[in-house]
Write a structure and sequence with these properties.
Elements (H helix, E strand, L loop, with lengths): L15 E6 L1 H19 L4 E7 L3 H8 L6 E3 L2 E4 L12 E4 L9 E9 L3 H11 L5 E9 L12 E5 L5 E2 L15 E4 L8
Parallel strand pairs: 2-3, 2-4, 2-6, 6-7, 7-8
Antiparallel strand pairs: 1-10, 4-5, 9-10
Helix pairs in contact: 1-2
């Protein structure tokens, strides 16, 4: 019996004003970042610490490009909720379960904008005395920086626009888009 074709609703990509980074560009840049990270750490084992939920897609694809032995743990931080603006001081919701003392640690996040989240996570993890502590972000939005902070590894520098896709969300929507795009202003309302 032939399968009935289900018609899709309007794709979420129509909610984008423009595409800033294509899926192909993301794949190419992640391959380069993986090689840079592998070269930086040599043969050393790395404890990867993604800040979830946003960095899940980026972390999964990046780890496939890193040749080093990997340990994986994560932290969960609350800072945006259902808004396009950060809500002040980031709040830790879930911390590490692995011991990182004397380990090489790489924190991964989807976007560095105000700098508050990454600087807070770095400060928190430094207390656990890792051998090294570096950061990697897919996107760097320097125009929004409120804290003096720079990532060690950066995928793309982007303008001060509210972006979604490839893990980045608005009210937990749009994470699954394969590209990164600017959300239309009329879609940036609490849904």
């Amino acid at each position: 019996m032939p399968r009935k074709k289900v018609s899709a609703k309007v794709p979420l990509q129509t909610d984008l004003e423009s595409v800033l980074v294509t899926s192909a560009a993301i794949k190419r840049r992640i391959k380069t970042l993986g090689a840079q990270i592998s070269k930086t750490y040599g043969r050393e084992e790395i404890t990867i610490v993604p800040i979830i939920n946003g960095s899940i897609f980026f972390t999964a694809d990046l780890l496939r490009q890193v040749r080093n032995p990997i340990r994986l743990d994560c932290v969960r931080i609350f800072s945006y909720r259902n808004s396009t603006k950060s809500h002040g001081k980031p709040k830790l919701l879930h911390s590490l379960t692995l011991d990182i003392k004397d380990r090489h640690v790489l924190i991964i996040d989807d976007i560095l904008d105000t700098g508050k989240t990454l600087s807070a996570v770095v400060k928190m993890l430094k207390k656990q005395k890792p051998a090294t502590l570096r950061t990697c972000v897919l996107l760097d939005k320097k125009g929004r920086r409120e804290v003096d902070f720079e990532a060690d590894f950066v995928g793309f520098e982007i303008p001060d626009k509210f972006v979604v896709g490839y893990g980045l969300d608005y009210a937990e929507r749009y994470r699954g888009l394969p590209c990164i795009g600017v959300l239309k202003p009329e879609k940036q309302k609490l849904a």
